Amino acid sequence: MSVISLLERRDTLHDAYGRHLHYLRVSLTDACNLRCVYCMPENIVFRPAASLLQDDEILTLVQVAASLGVDKIRLTGGEPTVRRGIVALVRAIKMIPGIKTVAMTTNGIKLAELARPLVENGLDAVNISIDSLDPEKFRRITRRGNLDDVWRGIAAVEETGLTPIKLNCVVTRGFNDEDVADLARLTLEHPWEVRFIELMPFGGTADFQQSQVVPSAETRARIEAALGPLTPVPGHNGHDPARPYRLPGARGIVGFISSVTEPFCEGCTRLRLTADGKLRLCLLRDDEVDLLTPLRSGADFATLRRIFAEAAYRKPWGHRLEQHEIAQSREMSQIGG
Ligand code: SAM
Ligand code: SF4
């Protein structure tokens, strides 16, 4: 029996390296209400809506993924909350048999109004991006954001009782590398997980990203110099990209996502669906498989399932940043972080 026919029969997805792929990140749009310096060029042109997956198409592809054992979905973008009908979409995804967790990564700007309806309709977890506690720096990084909107969004999530609240901070030299201790300090009082992410290079913004990257070791040293030693939190799940630590007496956790200096490809369980319907096999590699064309050409469920499983099997081992290979085809906002 061929590898492919074996793949079609299985109800779990594995790649050629034996990694169990059960986590799909779905980009709902490449558009955004911010323009973060590390994510997209200021003058970016967003794709026309017709070229993006429609709600029914997303649901079909999530059903395909779920039939192959995917149980966790993260909605991302671009900014997922700017998609019209986001609440109904969350509800519909959550109802798909096999889907246990629906999470979202968002800049938080619209969460003040959306947190409650999202949670009431099935959202299980939320990661909110916040790169500085200084309103001026926040605006400089996001090129237009109002920090108070994010705070209102975080408060709205807290009111729903959803835990844990995870805050993402991309550390960018010259923009917020001096702010990391202030962000880590939030974990002293709050049971939040503040995660520091190394800047990753993509496409047209790669030169900027490579020159401004701050290694996690440097971020960590800066936090420890200000706030005391960070102690590893036992029981780290090797599939979670963030390595967890705790400050003395802290209620929350400080995490480091060191994709550039300490890759974690071995434990990767993720696949990504881009807003224009491509299955992206690795965040930092250009390998993609088109699902939109077969979907719109009327491919049946079994065919989509086969294409999906075959693509997943070909997931590359990991990124090749050390070999100076940078994914060129898209910006981060066009992939879904
Ligand atoms: N708009 C949402 C947000 O900002 O949270 C979701 C999409 S964004 C692309 C997902 C995550 O990727 C965010 O935490 C963002 O800070 C991060 N990100 C964006 N560009 C990045 C880059 N070049 N390197 C590392 N992380 C990046
Ligand atoms: Fe928008 Fe998120 Fe990219 Fe910032 S990181 S520009 S909020 S998609």
CATH class call:
Alpha Beta
What distance lies between the first and last C-alpha atoms, to the nearest angstrom? 37 Å
Tell me the fraction of residues in β-strands, as a range: 15-25%
Helical percent range? 25-40%
CATH topology: TIM Barrel
Counting DSSP H or I runs of 4 or more residues, the number of helices is: 11
The helix-strand sequence is HEHEHEHEHHEHEHHEEEEEEHH
Strand count, sense and barrel status of the largest sheet are: 12 strands, mixed
Average pLDDT number: 93
Q: Output the CATH homologous superfamily.
A: Aldolase class I
Shape: globular
Kindly report the spatial arrangement of strands forming the biggest sheet.
Answer: 7-8-9-6-5-4-3-2-1-10-11-12
Number of domains: 1
Low-pLDDT stretches are none
